[in-house]
Amino acid sequence: MNILKFNDPKAVNIALCGGKGASLAKMSQAGFAVPQGFIVTASAYKKFIANANLELNFEYGNLEILEKQSENLRKKLLNLPLPDDLKDEIKENLALLGANKSYSVRSSSTLEDLANSAFAGAHDTFLNQKGIDEITQKIKECFISLWLPRAIAYRHKQGFAQANADMAVVVQEMIFADKAGVSFAINPVNGNFDEILINANYGLGESVVCGEYDVDEYHIDKNSLNLISSVIANKQKSILWGENGTYESEIQPNLANLACLSEDELKQIAQLNIKTSAHYGFVQDIEWAIKDNKLYLLQSRPITTIIPHFTRDESAERYPSVITPLTWDYVDLAFHISLKHSFELMGLPPFNGKWFAMFDNYIYGNQNAVNLYMQTPPLNIKNLEQLAQILPSLKQKFSYAFSLPNSWNINLSNYLLQIGGLKAQNLDNKNEKEIWEFIQNLVDVGTEYFKPNIAISITQFMIYKFFMRFLQMIDESRAASWFDALCTAQTKTSLINNEILSLASQVAQNSELKDIFISRNSRQILSENLLDKFSDFKAKFEKFIDLHGHREVEFDSYIPTWAEAPHIVLDNIKNILNNPAMQHKNKSSEISAKTNKALSEILNAVPKNLQEFTLEFANLVQIYTILDDEEHYQTTRLTPMMRKGIKALGEKLAQKDIIAEPYDLFFAHLQTLEIAVKSGEYESLASEIQSNKTAYLKNKNLTPKWDLSVDEKSEFNPNAKILKGLPASMGVAEGSVCVVRSSDDFANFIPNSILVARTTNPAWTPLFYSAKALITESGGVLSHGAVSAREMKIPAVMAVKSVMQILQNGQKVRVDGKNGIVEILD
Fold first, then answer.
1. Does residue 474 surpass a pLDDT of 60?
2. What pLDDT, on a 0 to 100 scale, did the predictor assign at position 293?
3. Cα–Cα distances in angstroms (integers) from residue 441 to residues 206, 258, 438, 447, in the given order
4. What is residue 705's DSSP assignment?
5. Which pLDDT band, with edges at 50, 70 and 90, does 582 fall under?
6. How far does Cα 509 stand from its chain's mean position?
7. Cβ–Cβ contacts within 10 Å for residue 569, how many?
8. Burial (0-12, 13-18, 19+ Cβ within 10 Å), 798
9. What count of other Cβ atoms lies within 10 Å of the Cβ of residue 260?
10. Residue 357 has pLDDT above 70, yes or no
């Protein structure tokens, strides 16, 4: 398979045609105005080098030697002839397009468009090439440019094996542009998603792409396509075409200071950029050219690099409290590895940058990255008829979503076996280096297990988003209730909560035991062994802790889990006892009946040709509801193991007076700790721990800024009477506020209060049994708090900014869950 035309279905394969070739084939097959051509495949390149016996051992640390090695390798390849059958096919395809035309000959590496591998300018491109012999020679030179020093060094830097690099070549009709340039579907400089950025110059687009020339810049409103602003450069030079190749040309003085694009041309380019983004389902950076008033699309790539905008919007729910440096270091490592793996699995372009980052011990999300990947709708479907037409392509596009749950469950068994092996290890007689090896093994096990977990979370978000839109297309008035019914499932969290309810019920039925719970605090009950007299309850409680003791109370591994802090479970039981009715227990039969009723109503409302799809999709919603919760539950098994390793290592260092307490090691950074253990030099470690712990304790008592890019002092109004957030659970409730900042406040929660928190996680669910309503500082309609509130049928308003600063314990408020409003009554 030496050559593929742009319209060949196989031409969209990056492994065959490289990133540039596959992109051009996709655009051409989608009907865009792409200059026609063909692709000399990577298979042809492999035939070309088949007998070359390439030596790929390079001296990356010495540029002079690397350049010499590269030069020798390229000279060797330059002497190799192209296979005869390839030369014949090149001749045939050029004859079909027009042997006397001019062509661009562009390298198209198979490693382009992969994670962190733009390869911009790393390989050769030749413009305005004429004649079979000249074009054939340039194809060969593009092959050989795979081994230019800059390309070799770039692959090494990105972690790609040199032997895995292959090269395809694009041969495409040359457009002798009157004007050309690039267009971005968002403004990558300031992160504005409502703005299209266009750069342009006279002549060929190379003067714009190379970044070395003065060019015009236009800012277009994405909604109206009107010009917002422009910077018209004093354009001195452009790139034009000669007999064979290109040259730099002076721009006529009377044109230099004029806008090279008209308003109509700007609208056409903006519309083309919007259409390419809609086609790919992701915002695009395009190269375009205008010749004789016709607009051509030359290239389209996803925009994956954007200025960061760190806020608490995305992170406050996941990471509500301060986090120690060590916990964040290994979470950050695993998260971004998972992000790379998950995006590849989902067919999303790679993200180049930080999704989350820590500032003053609080985690912030890059909101521009979130908008870039999560706000783009997966499908632009307007009605059920259109949905029916695209069902085959829809299932193919999201085929990974059907197979991911099974593959995750298979990998789960291996993960649990590895965790079991680590749990069984005795660290008492191990030295510092051996304990560090245990910690590193744990981090490796956790990182490998976590690889697909971001894909699970994002897929659940996308499925929910599409499912809601699907239900709204069926019946707008019933969509919300249907959605709630089908998103309710017997998750691991609901099963655990039912076990806690069962424990509470057992206490309620024993007056003597109930009196102990009411009259004593939970820590006292345990420290004085007051449960010993109640052997049945004690056995059941201990079994619960044994099964679920790894469940975290806070995200940070520095904070003990239920196994080390079982009093928190007793606090939850006490809160349930304070609710005399205890009517909220979710029986599986009731959940199934509610789900089946909703599904039956949906099936009766959709056309027959969509009923099978509805069943499949509803099942997928249930699967991901359960899977997302199960994934989190299993992830928390890492926390007790990390605490085990840190405690063992910390005890060794505490004995040497390097640290005061074993768990102080959580205030070290992962790299510092590794260097200290391996070298045996602990002075820098001790200093870092002391400094980081002081900062942590200070930041723990501060309310973090919500948006790092703005001054929030002017926005915060402590005297506000009406607070607005996101409506999450319908209903209206009035009551006194009870602010819960952490698990330490569980025991002090007052029954029938309005629960106010930064966010909630599954360990907080028992508080909902005695709460009148919920207000959180973060989260959305699919957050744990929102879902739990709907299940418990209590009003909830999410994402009320600064609510933890504004509301005080005992204040009277009215919570309107339908409209997302909190009214302060006193």
1. yes
2. 95
3. 50, 63, 5, 10
4. P
5. low
6. 48
7. 26
8. buried
9. 24
10. yes
When the pLDDT of each residue in the chain is averaged and rounded to a whole number, the result is 89
Burial class (CB in 10 A: 0-12, 13-18, 19+), 192: middle
- Cβ 22 vs Cβ 11: under 8 Å: yes
Q: Note the Cα 735 to chain centre separation in Å.
A: 38
pLDDT for 525 equals 95
Query: Angle at which helices 588-605 and 479-486 pack, to 10 degrees?
Result: 140
Which residue in 202, 204, 198, 200 sits closest to 251, CA to CA? 202
Closest CA to 674 of 247, 329, 307: 329
Alpha helices in 451-566 (DSSP H): 453-474, 479-486, 492-508, 511-519, 522-527, 535-548
Which of 108-122, 209-223, 648-662, 735-749 comes out lowest in average pLDDT? 108-122
Query: How many residues in the chain?
Result: 826
Neighbour order of strands in the sheet with 216-221: 227-231, 216-221, 195-202, 179-184, 284-291, 294-302
**Distance between CA 237 and CA 207 in Å, rounded?**
8
How distant, in Å, are the alpha carbons of 143, 161, 446, 680, 683 from that of 451?
A: 35, 21, 9, 33, 35
Angle between helices 325-346 and 670-679 (to 10 degrees): 120
pLDDT of residue 155: 86
- The C-alpha atoms of residue 622 and residue 594 are separated, in whole angstroms, by 13
Buried b (16+ CB within 10 A) or exposed e, 370-394: bbbbeebebbebeebeebeeeeeeb
The span from the CA of 27 to the CA of 22, in Å, is: 9
Q: How far is CA 618 from the centre of its chain?
A: 24
Residue 176: name the closest of 205, 138, 213 by CA.
Answer: 205
Give the Cα separation of 376 and 362 in Å (integer): 27
How far is the CA of 562 from the CAs of 522, 541, 570, 640, in angstroms?
A: 13, 12, 10, 10
By percentage, how much of the chain surpasses pLDDT 90? 61
Given a contact cutoff of 8 angstroms between Cβ atoms, the answer to whether 494 and 585 are in contact is no
Residue 314 and residue 415: Cα distance in Å, rounded? Answer: 28
Burial class (CB in 10 A: 0-12, 13-18, 19+), 241: middle
Residue 636 near residue 564 (C-beta atoms within 8 A): no
Q: What's the predicted TM-score (pTM) here?
A: 0.81
Q: What are phi and psi of 562, to 5 degrees?
A: -55, -35
Binning pLDDT at 50, 70 and 90, where does residue 583 land? very low
Place of tokens 């980081």: 692
- DSSP-assigned states of every residue in 278-318: HHHTS-EEEEEEEETTEEEEEEEEE-------EESTTTTTT
Neighbours of 281 (CB within 10 A): 16
Strand partners, 732: 816
From residue 104, alpha-carbon distances to 2, 107, 138 in Å are 18, 10, 10
The more confidently predicted of residues 348 and 327 is 327
Degrees, nearest 5: CA angle 560-561-567: 90
Q: Look at phi and psi of residue 347 and say left if phi exceeds 0, alpha if psi is from -120 to 50, else beta.
A: left
Cβ atoms of 367 and 306 closer than 8 Å: no
Q: Compute φ and ψ for 699, nearest 5 degrees.
A: -70, -25
Distance separating alpha carbons of residues 286 and 269, to the nearest angstrom: 9
pLDDT(118) > 60 = no
- The CA distance from 670 to 158, in Å, is 23
Contact 239, 249 (CB under 8 A): yes
Is 624's pLDDT higher than 70?
Answer: yes
Contact, 545 vs 563, CB < 8 A? yes
Amino acid at 787: V
- Exposed, middle or buried: residue 441 (CB in 10 Å: 0-12, 13-18, 19+)? middle
Tokens of 820: 């997302």
pLDDT of residue 114: 44
Sign of the Cα torsion 474, 479, 482, 487 reads positive
